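This week, think about what follows.
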Amino acid sequence: MKEFELIKRFFSEQAIKRKDVVLGIGDDCAIVTPSERQNIAITTDTLVAGVHFPHETSARAIGHKSIAVNLSDLAAMGAEPSWISLAITMPEIDEDWVKEFCAGVFELCEYYNVQLIGGDTTQGPLSITVTAQGLIPINKHLTRSGAKAGDWVYVTGEIGDAALALKYIFKEVDVAAEYRESVQRSLDFPTPRILAGQALRGYASAAIDLSDGIISDLGHICSASKVGANIVLDDLPISNALRDSVDVEDAFEMALVGGDDYELLFTVSEDNKVGMETALANTGNTITCIGQINRSEKITTTLNSKPVAINAKSFEHFSAGKG
């Protein structure tokens, strides 16, 4: 099977046909017509085999995750996902693999009404690059730079299970049989918090998605906002699977720096807390207050109201000694 036959068979046919797509797959460029009074949010992420997912990860999971991580970025800005472009490099054409990969891609696209409008296919080591675009009412987007001293720090969902799944895969920890499926799903099939992001417009002072861990991603908010923060370890939303699989110190470390959670981390002023909680209650997302913003320009952690140090470093591309 050659490139254009591959594209026609697996990527051109899809259930979603948005009215704002004038031209999709098949020409040199896609053409879309955005709605009036809307800004367009644009994000791009690349996933590389052996770096962003283990080589043995299923094709369906890779397809899902390649879309989910991009939609998670849109969620962090308060955007409504609209269109994606997909560039995939693979060693060879395995029709069964591509079919499962596309199932993972289009399942998420159909759920969020997102249309695949273009991309590229090439031969080489397995990697996937997705550019996602979404719509936001003009000047209603969320950013990392609005947090202020006194704001409360919140996170959606539970954190740390994806890191636990990776450690189990690499035989660094054991996980009870009753938890294995759920933690593996946290790693392979993250849920972008689209409705939560949209509900936070007008309430959150800053927001980011948790791709690299709380310490790193909250650090981005603090840096952009020129503030500091204290995280209350007692309040971290850690699952029973994580609590039962490792000791408490390792559980905190995985929750703080493990990454791959794709939950939303956001800050809210005291005045906006009640409105935010009411708005989020209608989205089906759980939220937890895990700390507070201060003027220190440093991130600290406390346990039982006492300062504690977390000896951990989050993942960073091109860093020395990277595994």
The chain has a mean pLDDT of 91. The chain has ten helices and 13 strands. Residues 18 and 237 are 37 Å apart (CA to CA). The chain has two domains: 3-137, 152-308.
